[in-house]
Amino acid sequence: MNEYNRLFDNDKLLEPGFMISMYARGSFPMAEEDGTLNWYLPQTRAVILVDKFNIPRTLKKFMQSATFEYRFDSNIVAVINNCSRRDETWISQELIDAYQRLINLGYVHSVEVYQKDELVGGLYGIAFRGAFFGESMFSKVPQASKCAMVKLFDNLKTKGYDIVDVQFITNHLKMFGTIEIPYDEYVDILVNAYKKEIEFI
Questions:
Q1: pTM score, two decimals?
Q2: pLDDT tens digits, residue range 66-88?
Q3: Which residues in the chain land under pLDDT 70?
Q4: Is 124 exposed, middle or buried (0-12, 13-18, 19+ CB in 10 A)?
Q5: Whole-angstrom Cα distance, residue 195 to residue 72?
Q6: What structural domains does the chain harbor?
Q7: How far apart are CA 131 and CA 108, in angstroms?
């Protein structure tokens, strides 16, 4: 989607209305090292269908005895900031500021994992009608981000969401039931998901 960079500066590319319209069509933003923002629209999509979500047996067993506390949307910005603290990151300060504006409008949500009242893992993404667009996750202790995934899908299934866009398939995500589908099939799923009016929490 790099053609947008020739038409608009980063301020326009990060306006709330523009961002939600881009997410709704399946695009996602990434900041380059020089601060330039690009929107990407892969033709092969990595997704998890909510009703096909898989919890690995070892993770299920771990969660039975884990001393984690889970919260939703109690500190979304802290989750985003933790996700950005990597040697190589696509989450620039401009993008964090843009997510703050979307938080204020109710589009960005987080699942947080606490241990002894300390934030040790979590994930965040954008919810739009019956679709959730996962952005990033982090973990300071083993299994924390995986547990956040389970709690996310527990909530999505209860609420009636259809699909989670995970952007790229990885071994970490494959264990949860991530599949790759062509863009046309992806759009058909989104069209049905957008018929739903759902509150994340």
A1: 0.94
A2: 999 999 999 999 999 999 998 88
A3: 1-10
A4: buried
A5: 24
A6: 42-193 (3.40.630.70)
A7: 12
